[in-house]
Predict the structure.
Amino acid sequence: MVLKIFFPQCCNRADSGLLVGRWISGHDSAVVLAVIHYPFIPGQVKQYVQKMQAQSGVELSVLGSWSLPKEGQEGMESFLRDLSTIFPQERWLQIRRQMGKTGFTCEILKQGPNGRIAERKEKKKQEEADGGDGEEEDEEKVIFVHYEQRKVMLSQLHPIQSGDRDPKTDPPSELRQMFQTVARSQPLFFLDRYDDGPLKSTHWQSEGREASIIVELLKQASVPLCMLIGWLLSIWTWVCNIRIFSLYPLRFLSSKLSTCVQLSYRTEHMRTISSLKPATDHTQFMRKANILVSFLVDVALGVLLMSWLYRDNHITMLANTLVPVADHVSKELEELLQWLMGAPAGLKMNRALDQVLGRFFLYHIHLWISYIHLMSPFIEGILWYGGLSACFGLTFALSLLSDMVALLTFHIYCFYVYGARLYCLKIYGLSSLWRLFRGKKWNVLRQRVDSCSYDLDQLFIGTLLFTILLFLLPTTALYYLVFTLLRLVVVLFQGVLHLSVDFINSFPLFAVALRVCRSYRLAEGVKFRVLCDEPGSALHLMMEINPLKGSAAVQTYRTPTYSCYPKDSWGALVKKLFVGELIYPWRHKTTKTD
């Protein structure tokens, strides 16, 4: 058998003492966490180990002894060997580092049935002297796996296992147990060589505890800040729950406005951040951190946008440009309608229907231009107060811009709806009359096409209606095609805005920053390289962390958001456009995706 010992690099030159760690259940391996230096009192060591075990929840124990030869400590090795009777273990590891060599030697002492300690190396020599017929299965080889304790403690092994797994039926792997043991043993690392206590130890913080005054101050200030944010959110929730806001018109309007959707989304984010409950696992911690960093970056970008808007009269310039642009767009639409009312591209249209549709749409354009000129004195004020929404974040400004675009292009949406409804009516009428010619009809109850017999009058009327709809279809289809293209341009622009908002809300900036700056924090696995393979010593391997791929980090820690992508496939979208079904805006508040 092979015994794997995970040994921290920081303990390679530690003073002689006791090895504190854990035996990994279900595997023939041990994790060394710290070395308690000599001199010590065994009773105090037992109390200290029990205390750390209660605080960390890890089954800590004294694994064995560690010897580093020094002058004046010739009998140290035999003294540490005798401690195996005070700290009873099934196996006692006696690790010794020789001067001038890189590798370690390890002797495994086992407790026999009669309570005596038997040394494996001496037993092997005695079996060889007796005839060399000892069983090979009694020989136990040792492999030392060196690891950087701080990196392993701070890293998270992926894929992340869910907390509802049963460790008895589905136990974690050996490597995952090793990572979890080091991560949960943080209370053990608070003892350093500068403490005034009776025990001194070596681990990754042995040279002094790692701490940051700024981090500690932020932790102290976060509690009252979270309480203040929670109180403000409770007031906001109470205002939103007023009965007048639950009426159908207001509820329907709030579900369609991108600004209201973004406001509800940010409210949920702030409720998550301001929660006083600490994160119970790595997933919750990363979710809170990603939301906080995303919110701070969003606000910073919004402040930059607001500073640009209110500098050098940019808002006045935008307001003075908006009305001429609206006039230009209306003029272009009028010219387009005049072109459609003639002979567009040499096509011969139904003149009566063409004139009716053209004049109908021209009347709507005149109404819209009158509305724009009526609102022109208030546009600068609307932009000035609307620009203040950028202080809540760039996403609020983009959402407000999307709503303003939807409002300014409402006439184009009306043209599209009129044309689509008229075109859809003719398409479904032609399909129904085509089934009449073939002796078929649509069965509404069974949702299928059945055979049906028609009399002569029905066939005659159906022929007349089919001929009329067929000859009027090109004129209607041309108007539908033009206004559908205009509508798709507006929807494409709004889609770009929604995608930008969704990107800022969902992109895991904190996880990507960890992947770039401290890649070991997000571990996909480990790799081993031979560190030392000297004769007379055990095999030494160096365990290095393989960082998680950037795409995998984004996919794993992406914040769930309300989808702003089309619900239908491209084939279904083309089918809807062909039959004249309405293409609604892409944002669906009831659809939440990961």
Remarks:
- Residues 120-137, 586-594 have pLDDT under 50 and may be disordered.
- Residues 456-506 form the longest helix (51 residues).
